[in-house]
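Subject: sequence -> structure tokens, single chain

Hey, anyone have a minute? Need the predicted structure for the following. Not urgent.
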Amino acid sequence: MILSDRSIREEIAAGRLVVEPFEPSMVQPSSVDLRLGRRFLVFRNTQKPFIDVRDRVDDVMDLIEVGEDQPIIIHPKEFVLGSTVEKVTLPDDLVARLDGRSSLGRLGIVIHSTAGFIDPGFSGHITLEMSNLANLPIALYPGMRIAQISFQRMTTPAETPYGQRALGSKYQGQDAPTASRLHLDFSDWNRAKS
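Reply:
Had a minute. Here:
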């Protein structure tokens, strides 16, 4: 069951669902709009011939921060990690779905490659996996509405919500665009390599 605007406001008022900073005007009929932050991770493709999923990618990405009125320009076929202004915290019985705004999709901007699902128990700023599918560069501005998040109630609360040590949750508490931590899935291989 997808939460309506009324249910979203009730969950926020009760403190079970947290979207901060919260702007009541960002609530839509069945979602909440989220805004684009000022920090971005961009790939630098001059250091390595390829990305090995078993290795960290920190050394092939640069963190940039744009000014309040300064855009980030995403070129055709470029991939950039961004982050939401808002921190989202889900209770153990709600999941969320992140989607791009239709108006941006019509320009060719995709805001998530595969990570549109957010588990119960997640808390943090949401990393956006942004791509430009258009033939022209597109300017995006900090603070603009970039995505929408909807919420669904689960049949029962999760026994082990996201962020629990047993799950090995990689992105709990992130406060900026966060590079892939897929290499942690290969920790035994990485230790043997050292």
